[in-house]
Amino acid sequence: VLGTPTREEIKCMNPNYTEFKFPQIKAHPWHK
């Protein structure tokens, strides 16, 4: 099961891990 787990799997293990796994979402506020 190693590799690139889905966001749902990460949420079950650690909801705070999403911020560390996908920092680019907040780092690139191009939508503004």
Tell me about this structure.
By secondary structure, the chain is mostly helical. It has one domain (1-31). Helix content is 50%, strand content 0%. The protein has helices at 7-13, 17-21, 24-27. The longest helix has 7 residues, at 7-13. The model has no long low-confidence stretch (mean pLDDT 61). One of its GO terms (biological process) is signal transduction. One of its GO terms (molecular function) is ATP binding. Keywords: ATP-binding, Kinase, Nucleotide-binding, Serine/threonine-protein kinase, Transferase.
Average pLDDT for all residues: 61
Radius of gyration: 11 Å
Report the order of strands and helices: HHH
Give the biggest beta sheet. Answer: none
> Stretches where pLDDT falls below 50 for ≥5 residues?
none
In what range is the share of β-strand residues? under 5%
Per DSSP, the total helix count is 3
- Please tell me the total number of domains: 1
Based on Cα principal axes, name the global outline: elongated
The N- and C-terminal alpha carbons lie at a distance of 37 Å
Number of strands: 0
Helix percent band: 40-55%
Strand-pairing-aware structural class: mainly alpha
Comma- or semicolon-separated keywords:
32 residues; mainly alpha; 3 helices; ATP-binding; ATP binding; transferase; nucleotide-binding; serine/threonine-protein kinase
